[in-house]
Amino acid sequence: MDNVLLETKSLHRSFGGVHAIKDVSIQVQRGQIKAVIGPNGAGKTTLFNLIAGTIPPHEGEVTFQGRRITAWKPHAVAALGIARTFQTTKLFPHMTVLENVMVGRHPRTRSGFLAGMLNLPCTWREDCEIRAKAREILADLCLLKSADETASNLPFGRQRLVEFARALATEPVLLLLDEPAAGLNIYETGELSELILKIRDRGMTCLVVEHDMSLVMNISDDVVVLDQGQKIAEGPPRVIQRDPEVIRIYLGEG
Amino acid sequence: MIPLRRYWPVAASALAVVALQVVLSLGNATYYMTQITMSAYYALVVIGLCLLMGYAGQVSLGHAGFFAIGGYTVAYMTTVNLLAYRDVPLVRWLQSLHIVVQWQNLYGAEVLSFSPWPAFIAALLLTGLISLLIGVPVIRLKGHYLAMATLGFGLIIYRIVLGTKSLGQADGISNVPPFHLLPWLEVNGRAPFRVQNYYIAWVAVLLAMVLAINLVHSRVGRALRSIHQNEEAAHSLGVNTYRYKLAVFILSALFAAVGGALMTHYNGSIGPSEVTVMKSVRYVAIVAIGGMANLWGAMIAAILLNFLSLRGVFGTFDDAVFGAILIAIMLFAPQGLLRMPKWHAVASAGRASALALQRVVRGRTTDTRRPHG
Amino acid sequence: MNFPLIMQYGLSGITVGSIYAIVAVGFNIIYSTTGIINFAQGEFLIIGAMTAISLHQILPLWLAIALAVIMTTILGGLMEVVFIRPVRNASVLRLIVITIGLSILIREAMLHIWDEQVHSLPYFTGTSISTVTILGAHISPQVLWVLGTSAVIVAGLTIFFRFTPTGRAMRACADDRMAACLCGINDRWMVTLSFMLSAGIGALAGCVISPVTQTQYDMGAPLAIKGFTVAILGGLGNSMAAVAAGLLLGLLEAFVISQFASAYKEAVAIVVLLLILVFRPTGLFVRREIGALRAA
Asked: What value of ipTM does the predicted structure carry?
């Protein structure tokens, strides 16, 4: 199964008696856009947190590129090539847009405390590179003109885009997007779809949690449905759309 | 391109320092230099604390403890009399390396003790070790737990110095010899050395500022600020938040220890009054006034307030003043009073206007789609 | 170690421990309602005692104490209204720093209003040398007053929180401030009340312990540290556990004094504090995960 980029096996996680995630096993193929959907409280963000290392699972395994990364800390997971965005935008409010994205370069750069404090020449070049690369990404996402604005001053849609850019700056192999379309209007959602497809075409793999069905149907190759912490269904979007179980959990009985 | 723009305020401060010295010397008022020198050493603690609180977002209510570790270590090592052990091989060997030297103290007695440089290095090592030991379990804690743990640490150090005979208990340690940094340069509080020491202290402070400024502008500094502003996001971007917080904690402890060590040599003594909770709270209040993430504000506030305090301007209300300051700042100006223009903002504003000017000159309209800026 | 001696140390430990417990309960009341750690908690005890001492010069003891408690209660309320309430969108840390500043100001004010001398209230019954014998241990009758008062305070608070509408309102506020507000509970008044309550019981505790430990203007801070240690030991917000934890700390201190020099007594609380913070910040009596959900 060489093509499997990320795999979770029988993940279990509970919070004080509530089973947030129960026996969830999924696979994400390289180059795929896989969506995770489900009603509120289904455990979608918890799944992300388990993969990204924010919280450890109580049972089960997470494997990435053949390597077991179960319960690895978030910074180690990021260094390995998994980047994530958050349900509520977590920008660094008092830093500029450019600086936000520059922080994203952190796992790919090296200057440490001593070099930083002494302002050694090796840091000058690295800093220039960080800055240039960040600007490149901003330009790619048409954010360059906001580069020097304080992040918290931006309109909501652009803030989300900055978070996206920041995640891209880490040069990830797998991108975890947690409700990227939340709070976006139709046009912005359309642009978002194009963006995700564009980066997929460059070779990125994406795991997307989303409520917006149009986005899910348009861009995903495969869909996983969670309900009450368990995997209910998995398959291509058209099939999932017609699955009676899925319809039931979204719309209720009868 | 060498990043030099950030050092502008350092150069300005250096000039101000020299100007002040000239004025005081000409005005025959060099006695003010003593308090300024002492304030400068307190400022060292504040600079480190500012990095910890303002940039890494961690609070420490026990930083006087690290000041004390630095001060008491050099005091103890330079005054402990090993004369009785003069013939022990280890002592002999240390003496041959000039780590241990024989000298005459103020009372004319012969003393065989550590020379100041080894004592200084030992103080730094000890502080590094202790801050590591304390930091490892404590940095994990959040908010009020961290505050309480650091408070507890400060209290323990206080109890230790107050209760230990060899550390002088309530009287502290005195007769600390001067610190010969270089053969012709010594940290010494006596009158003839006033100007010399004024400069030594200020060089130390400005050096600390340079290091701190460099750190803040570096990749690590960015990571620290990101931790402060949104720890979860920073963590998800590959920043090892735990290790960075610990590193800043240790760094700030070292800054405090240097201040303590130099101050001890300057004053010729150190006592438990340097380790009280009030002292720690003072440092916090000063960082708060300067604006949590404002190095220059912190430094200026440190010099100013400590100078006034040392000159007795606050009288018996000394502690009350700092308490009131703390409350006032928290209530009315949590961003601090001394908001200096962030040099980055100034620089980028400059760049943006230069760019606009460029475009106007070249007759182009603003075109934001171009990839370079 | 014979039995009477053990009783002696034990009772002394419980006495002091019950005072720590009261301080901790005061912490918990404010913490539950607001999430703030009130660093000025210890000062309430000292203000209460000092005020009672001054009033006693012109009033009978009971009246002096009652008035002192009332005045301190009002002071606690004023403190909240003037310094805590107006702070909008404050991070909890900022509010904590304010209470630190307040504790300093209060202490300095006490220094200037009274002096740095040691004072004390007279023994409520008997004199400084009268003793009562319990199971072979000779203790001062004041000890019984301390234990009795602490028990009454705890019992009174339990009844208040469980059976009175105001008490229940405060508990609602502690559980979920927004929900309580939506139910028509005036949450801001609840916050003020929590401060007043903590101040009042603190003042009472300070008065009752004054003959035994004497009262000095700067005793507030060490008491606050110990009270906080006890509160954390029991789990922040859990008052019943705080009582148990208080007695535990008191006994521990007594044990240390009995075996080692009394100079190390002060270190006990701090060491316990650091150990607890490092290993079990959610407290001894709280199941780890639930505590993790609740804390910070």
From this structure: 0.90
